[in-house]
Amino acid sequence: MKNIINALQAFGKSLYGPVLILPIVGLYIALGNLFGNGNLAEYLPFLNHPIIQGTGQLLAKSAVSLLSNLALIFAVGIPVGLAKKDKGYAGLIGLVAFIIFINAMNIILTQQDKLLPIETMRAAGHGLVLGVQVLEMGVFAGILTGGFSGWLYNKYSGRQFNGIMAIYSGHCFVSIITIPFMILLGVLMSEIWPFVQAGITKLALGIHGAGAFGPMIYGFLERILIPTGLHHLVYTPFLYTELGGVQEVCGTVYQGARNIYFAEMACPSVTKLSPTVVWDARGISKMFGLTAAAAAMIMLAKKEKKQIAKAILIPAAATSLLLGVTEPLEFSFLFVAPILFFAHAILTGIGMMLFYLFDVHAIGANGVIDFVLYNLPLGIEKSNWPMYVLVGVIMAALYFVTFRFLILRFNLKTPGREADDEETRLYSKADYQQQPQSTASSTTPLTETGPVGEQIIAGLGGRENIDSVDNCYTRLRVTVKDADVINEETLKQTGAKGVVRHGNSVQVVYGLHVKKMREAVEAVL
To answer: Catalytic annotation on 267?
Structure first.
């Protein structure tokens, strides 16, 4: 069981790179829509200039093209995330694997005389990928080939030969193994995928047929799995595969909630965003819910600690409100009051249920900045963003009342309610920058490239205990030989907000500056 959890966490981590690129694509689409939106030009006449309109459309339509090749992004990105060394070579192997896979499937379809005219491909479950007709697997093709090529890379990239065979060692040997493996996989999937596709279609229909309960369960699972790091496995299929919906937008078929609404943003003929946007409505709890939860914790802080509680909770709440980064705030109560986190997960599900019931079709996956850039240029008719705000206000009230009740009812020790001899704090980048005396002399600052890397390694049990180091958006993700020797107090002295262990997989929560912490560790290793 421990090995399964470790494997799932490693795979979830590998999705981080491809998934993180998509919001950036969305921002470019939003900017293009801002400048190329004819409706907005009615209120701001200078936007009606042909050069501005053309530039806006160029930005939006160029960014949308990435959505049609999303499987390739995952095929390359997943091996990069899984690789324990030489990640660039792993990405190259992923690219090779994907190209071999789709062409092997195409050849089998050709030999079986199953190729179809373009106008009938969609109805038969076929599609074009990089100009090659294959069974329409969508992003699953990239996830499948990326996962297998990443596994093959880690398993065989260290293989070395002697003598005349030495040239076929390492990365070359991985290619030798990968090519026939992907040919076989392409052959197998050409036979198996129609049955898998039928199952996915039934599952999607079942989830969508559950009405408001579908989004509610989805929202609960996505939040409750945050401490385990497995939440990527919940939302990724809904955002990028058929589970999140299938929609034709401006003549192109898109799968997945995020792909669909990004395409709809750039399509002038779409007058209203499709309801599939509900699967990316996670920002309701990020913008409104957690901000209200922070307000409840500040209100209930002890009088003598209220100012300290404000100083640490307000910045954490602002990070969630503006950027949609929730972990600094979630981890402020996760370990001291798990019941609050459970309530948070339930309320997240309720928020998505209300989103569905109020027929909201605005975009709101993260924070206020994304929300404004995505929705305001679209106009009220296309995004009905005021309804999103209405649901958010309702959720803020529910969060405030629920958190206040639970904190008082169970006397929970949230920030500002600790015992008089306990310190009230959340750890931040400023904390570890101001602690040189903890690991170095007064003349040696605690920096990302100096002693802080050594201290993190010491907290993880030393060099010999570390197998691999990587990071996602806010967490340092480490595979260790023995999780029992980890010293959480040492790690917290470096600014860690929390430490999550599952088998030999350890996640150290740092926040948005986690990349610098990983680089500090790698510099020492």
So the answer is: no
